[in-house]
Design brief:
The protein is of the alpha+beta class. The chain has 3 helices and 4 strands.
């Protein structure tokens, strides 16, 4: 009896997998700062749904636009990565600054001795925030460039 149930379950699982494999399926998707892409594959055709600001369009990947589509995807992924770095570093900076101010009000003498180390430790996230915001600007500029080139 258990063999029959196992075979029925296997057949059901296999047929369900085959039904999904024959239709289009999403390979990847991501969005950042108003830009979005979704890549769908059906047989040997890649279809891209790309968006930027208020525009949304569907593009079928060809040899002529393949490089621009991949560059658009890279720009969106880079922007998303830089946004994550900004958020994490920003939270670290706010928490570190808050703890420093709280400690400074409690133990002034101890903080005055450690002030150079605290300042150096808080300068690191400021530097990371600065460079990540510049990198985010570059990624968004690159993404906008490739998006506009795909609209034409």
């Amino acid at each position: 009896m258990s063999k029959v149930i196992f075979m029925l379950f296997s057949a059901l699982l296999f047929s369900n997998t085959m039904a999904h494999a024959s239709g289009p399926f999403v390979i990847s998707e991501e969005g950042a700062a108003g830009y979005y892409y979704q890549v769908t594959k059906e047989e040997n055709t890649f279809t891209w749904l790309i968006g930027g600001k208020d525009d949304l369009m569907t593009v079928i990947e060809t040899e002529e636009n393949e490089g621009r589509l991949h560059s658009f995807r890279t720009g969106v992924e880079n922007a998303n990565s830089q946004l994550s770095i900004l958020w994490i570093t920003g939270v670290f900076f706010v928490v570190g600054s808050t703890l420093t101010l709280y400690s400074f009000n409690k133990e002034r003498r101890m903080i005055k001795e450690a002030l150079p180390v605290i300042i150096a430790a808080l300068c690191i996230p400021i530097y990371i925030l600065f460079t990540a915001s510049i990198d985010l600007g570059h990624a968004l500029h690159e993404t906008e460039y490739y998006f506009q080139s795909l609209l034409k």
